[in-house]
Each structure stands twice: as C-alpha cells, then as structure tokens.
TrEMBL record, chains A, B:
<keyword id="KW-0804">Transcription</keyword>
<keyword id="KW-0238">DNA-binding</keyword>
<dbReference type="InterPro" id="IPR028082">
    <property type="entry name" value="Peripla_BP_I"/>
</dbReference>
<dbReference type="GO" id="GO:0000976">
    <property type="term" value="F:transcription cis-regulatory region binding"/>
</dbReference>
<dbReference type="InterPro" id="IPR046335">
    <property type="entry name" value="LacI/GalR-like_sensor"/>
</dbReference>
<dbReference type="Pfam" id="PF00356">
    <property type="entry name" value="LacI"/>
</dbReference>
<dbReference type="Pfam" id="PF13377">
    <property type="entry name" value="Peripla_BP_3"/>
</dbReference>
<dbReference type="GO" id="GO:0003700">
    <property type="term" value="F:DNA-binding transcription factor activity"/>
</dbReference>
<dbReference type="InterPro" id="IPR010982">
    <property type="entry name" value="Lambda_DNA-bd_dom_sf"/>
</dbReference>
<keyword id="KW-0805">Transcription regulation</keyword>
<protein>
    <submittedName>
        <fullName>HTH-type transcriptional regulator DegA</fullName>
    </submittedName>
</protein>
<dbReference type="InterPro" id="IPR000843">
    <property type="entry name" value="HTH_LacI"/>
</dbReference>
<feature type="domain" description="HTH lacI-type">
    <location>
        <begin position="2"/>
        <end position="56"/>
    </location>
</feature>
Length: 344, 344
DNA sequence: TTGCCTTGATTAAGCGCTTAATCAACATCC
DNA sequence: GGATGTTGATTAAGCGCTTAATCAAGGCAA
C-alpha cells in the first residue's frame, strides 16, 4: 500500500505538498502539481481514509439503522439515502437491528462519533433518550407528522393525511363497511395513520365499530392473519384498509384464499406505495409517501448537523416535513357491488 | 469525546495500560484493571475506531457490493452477511452500484484497502480483471458452480443442479409443453440454470424448441413481459420456468391477466426461494438456494483472506461450494389438466 | 539599496491508538 | 547473597494524514 510520503519522494516534494494537491488547498505551482499527479498514478496511490479521518477528526461515513433490511420498505429508503450520501462523498454504513433494542444501542455506541459521523434512524422502537444522548448527531426518519416532535431532529411525513386520503378514497367509492388492519409498530408508529382514517370516516358520518380493527405485525403474514380474522368475523365488509402496504398485500392474499375477488368482492388499500404495491396482482391502491424525498432530506439534515453543510440550507428547524402523501388508486379498489359510486 | 489518555489520567496509569485492559493483552493487575474499568465508564469512554484502525493497520469494516439493494434477493443475502460479519465484530458497508460498472469501480478504488478490509461482490457485471487487481481481498458471491472459476475467490452455488431440479419437477408432474423465461444478467449469469433445465429435459427425451425461450430483465416486470409474449405466442404451454423467482412472479401475473388459473391452466416455477416466493399467491414453487449459508461462507472466506481467521478453516480453496439447492414445491405447480401425473 | 509583499514550498506538531522494548521491584533458587 | 525470573507497569516510536506556522526567494515600490 503506497503512502503519501512515498508519493512525495517520487515527486521530489514533501508530504505536505502532496496533501495540498490532493485537497486543492494551499499554494502549489502548476508544474509541481503535475509532477505530484504523475507520481500518484505512477504509484497507484490511494489515500488511507482512516488516517485522513483521524487527522481531520471526522470520517467519510454516515450510518443508516433499520430494523431489518429484509423489510421491502427499507431498501427503497436505503437506496435513496445512500445515493444522497454518495453525492456528497460519504459512504453509508448499514445497520440491521433486527428489532432488537440492545443491538441498536450497541450500534449507536460503537459507531457514533468514530466510525460514523452521524446516523439515520428508522427504528420506531428505540428509546428516544438514548438517541438524544448519542455522541453524534442523529436524524429520525419517517416520523409521523401530527405527533409532537420527539425532541430529536427528524424528517416527518404527514401520515395523518395519508390515513385521511385512504378513507376518502374508500368513502368516495361508496364503501361503508370497512375493516382496518393496523401495524403494531412499537411506539404506536401507525396510530396517526389510523386516526387520520377514522377521523375522515367520522367526518363523513360513517359509523365505526372498534371490533373492525385488527392489530397485527407489520408484515405480509400479519396482514394475512388480520385479514382472515376480519373477513371471517365480518363477512359484510366491502373494504379493508391496512396502515401499510405489506399487510395490505397480506389482506389481499387472505381474501383470495377465502374465495373473494378483488376488487369485486372486497376493496383493499394500503399506505406507502412500495415497489411491491404496483407489482402485486391486482395492483394495490395505496397512498404514496415521498420516500425518496424523505431520504434526501434526512441526509441533508444530517449533514448540516455534523457541520458539513451550511446550516442555512434548512434554517434552525429540528423537524422537516416532506411534501404531502398522494393517493394512488389502482386495481385493488372499486365501488362495492351493490352500491352506486358517489362522485366526489 | 474522551480519549484514551484522559481515561489513563483519571485512573492514574499510562495510556498503554488502558489499551492493555481494553484489549486484554499484556499484564495488568486486577486492582489496576478495575480502576481503569471504573474510569472508562465514569468518563463514558469509547475508543476511536479510526485511530485504532490506523494503528492496527486494519479497520473493523467489510463491504458488500450489490447492484441494487432494492432487488429483493439482495437484502436477504445482505442481512445474513451482515449478521455474520457482526458476529466477528465487523461492520458492513453497503454499496449500491445501480448496475453501473463505473460506480462499482469507484467503490472498489475508494474502499479497498483503507475503509474496508475486504469486499463481498454480488455483481455479475464487473470486469473480473478489476476485481483481481483490487488492493484488498475480494470474494465473489453466488457464482454459478459449473462454470470454471473466475480466478477470484468465490462462493458458488450449483445452479446447474437447480435448473435440473426444476425441470425434473415439471417433468414429473407430466408437463411437456414448457416455456422458459431467462434473466439477462450480464456475464450470462443465468446460463447454467438454463443449461441444467434443458439438459434435464433432453435427458427425459422431451423435445425442446428454442423459440420457447424468452430472455428478459431479471425483474417482476421482465417476467411479466416475457410471460405474456410466451403465452400469447404459444397458447399450448402448460408450464413456464423462470430462472429466477422475481420474473417467475411476473409470469404468474401475466398469466392471471390473460385469464389463466395457476396452477390449473399453467404451472410456474422459479429459482432461489426468496421471501416473496412463499408470500405470493399462489405460493411459488421454486428451487431453494442456500442464501444464508452462502453469505456465511462468503464472510468467513473473506475473513480468512484478510487474515483474520486462520486459513485452515477452509484450506487453500479459492472456490467454496454451498450445499445443494433443494426443490420447494408449492401451489404454483400441478399436473397439467389433461395429463396424468407420472409418479417419479 | 532597503523594506515589504507574494508565491511556493517545507517543517513539525498532532490526531488517538497500539505495541515492542524497557524498566523497577520483588520473589526464587542454589 | 548475587544471579535469575516474574510481575506489572512505563516509555516511546509509529500508523498515514492534515495543517498552522515558518521560511526562502523573487518581484516591486520608494
């Protein structure tokens, strides 16, 4: 592994000069610069990023902590976040907590402040106090907007509105008998989606029975189980809303297995608009959330917090809200069989 | 940020001693050790991993390079790989190349040898020469076994056998009119699966028309398009085999959209057994590949290459083969309508 | 010619940690 | 009672890079 000084020798200058041409600082004559550049690729030199990090007091990496990269939502976010980080020359360290608080804290303890300059957190189930006491900046991603700020810099999405949009879509189609499958994300992650939905129902004067709500794990299987329970207990349902796409897809499977046709016999919708939503059959109606924008905002905010980006970019806010979710009607929703579609 | 020396002061010893207790090396009396330990958590000290990396000449991170973490197969591999790395105290750096060779090379150049000690590569479409010249060890993951070794340490899976198993399953059910959708992974990544399949067909004496092969992108959409083309052009098909689960799922969608019932009218199968395969409806018959094992082997091999694990663990081999793929019959395959099931 | 500014490079200290070499103090052995 | 070991700690060099401070050498004005 060639070092900076070897390059310096080869070019007949001092290490400081090489460093200067590398970083475009200080004064270097064009002639010298060229000699250094030549030496660099003659020797195939690459800077040692650890040494640089040590000297600069900060490394080139950010971290993203998710509960499990196997949950299809995270990769989409991770991809965008990584791209954003790379655009600024940072690498992205991936951390799977497997929904284990201890693991998460271990990561936070080990990474924070040395390996990674800052961390993006997508785990609802973390102790906020721990995050606040992190030794390096933390940005909480995909916070649910109407909740009060957790006292941690965060990127929020208006999930309350998302819930409302979902309800309005179903109501507009003429559904009245609607079941709900809500993800049991720790920290009540899905409560605002639920409130948005039920509030919109109430506003439309539609009666709402609490036994029509099933709380399940935020997975396809969870949605499957919840959907099955709901459909068996309440055959009159004409639509089911899930607070997330994954369980919504599970609901579709459950309905199919029970011999129901979607959307003829049952309308199903979710929230998020993950890739799978448009790839499922029937394609899932959902409320799209600006994942990519959230990821970019998150990286940007984190960068200002670690002092790499001028603060002015966002002002002093600790909570950045993305643009609004938008309804994406697809094939999984339609007017209930015996009802007329109310135009909105 | 407290440093090692501060801890040393606090405990009334020299930095060397603190380092010794931290790493359980050298001789330290129990009494001193305790004093240091107390100082450490009194001050909330955490080692600076960059400094450590610099001093030791090697950092605690490995890297995983995939073409896009949004492809559902990769997360499953990534999860296992990360877990394996963590089990040995290493962090995992995630790199998305977006199928761009230049990006991949940029990563390789920047990471290799400084930030990451070694890299796991899952990209078929990389110049092997570049990999060979990497300044740090590289392990190529999920190589296709029957191919000759690429001259790079690699983990191979017997995809030829996987193709055979798929064919045998379909043949055993009584299918004769079978279409094939093959992923166009660069570097002919799917050719051995295809060969395994066609060889098995030939061995069973089943005629095979080359126009029954559609080459498509390795995605749901690709499978959808390929399936549609195949089914429209050859309505007599009773089964379609895709070289990967993702396109297989696309094929199912295409069939459904054309009004075919699965498996009554058409059997579909894939290879890999990703999570989605068992979560799709109908559940996808497939040939399961030992992803987790491959990931663990890969990390382990990489660790021996970077010298962190005794070489003896694997001997001098440069190509490690996982245990064999296994058939996972599910709901998407059945005997063709007008045929009797041949018992095997 | 003297003094001052600019340019282009060097010097040297330091980032936080590791580790081989060294040392002091004490116990052991014949 | 000196030679020999052991134990438990210290010293000091060094990892590869950054950067403020310093310096030599011209150029230019008065």
């Amino acid at each position: 592994m060639t070092t900076l000084s070897e390059v310096a020798n080869h070019a007949g200058v001092t290490p400081a000069t090489v460093s200067n041409v590398l970083r475009n600082r200080g004064r270097v004559s064009n002639e010298t610069r060229q000699r250094v550049l030549d030496a660099i690729d003659a020797l195939g030199y690459r800077p040692n990023l650890n040494a640089r990090a040590l000297a600069e007091g900060r490394g080139p990496t950010l971290a993203l902590m998710v509960s499990s990269i196997a949950n299809p939502f995270y990769p989409e976010f991770a991809l965008a976040a990584e791209r954003a980080a790379r655009a600024h020359g940072s690498f992205m360290l991936l951390c799977n907590t497997n929904d284990d608080t201890a693991t998460a804290h271990a990561y936070l303890n080990q990474l924070a402040g040395s390996l990674s300059q800052g961390v993006l957190v997508m785990n609802g189930n973390l102790d906020f106090d721990v995050l606040r006491q992190s030794r390096c900046p933390v940005v909480l991603c995909m916070w649910e907007k109407p909740h009060e700020s957790p006292g941690i810099p965060c990127i929020a999405v208006d999930f309350y509105l998302a819930g409302q949009l979902a309800a309005q879509h179903l109501l507009a189609l003429g559904h009245q008998a609607i079941g709900i499958v809500v993800g049991n994300g720790k920290g009540g992650i899905h409560t605002s989606r639920l409130r948005g939905f039920t509030d919109a129902m109430a506003a439309a004067g539609v009666e709402f029975a609490p036994e029509l709500i099933e709380t399940v794990p935020d997975t396809v299987q969870g949605g499957y189980d919840g959907g099955q329970t709901l459909l068996q207990r309440h055959p009159q349902l004409t639509a089911i809303f899930a607070t997330n796409d994954l369980p919504a897809i599970g609901v579709m499977h459950a309905a199919t297995d029970l011999g129901l046709r979607i959307p003829a016999d049952l309308s199903v919708m979710g929230i998020t608009d993950i890739q799978m939503a448009q790839e499922s059959r029937p394609a899932l109606s959902t409320v799209a959330v600006p994942t990519q924008e959230a990821a970019e905002l998150a990286v940007s905010l984190l960068r200002t917090l670690v002092g790499q980006e001028p603060r002015a970019a966002h002002g002093p806010h600790q909570m950045l809200v993305t643009s609004e979710p938008v309804l994406v009607p697809r094939a999984s929703t339609a007017a209930p069989r015996a009802a007329s579609t109310r135009s909105d």
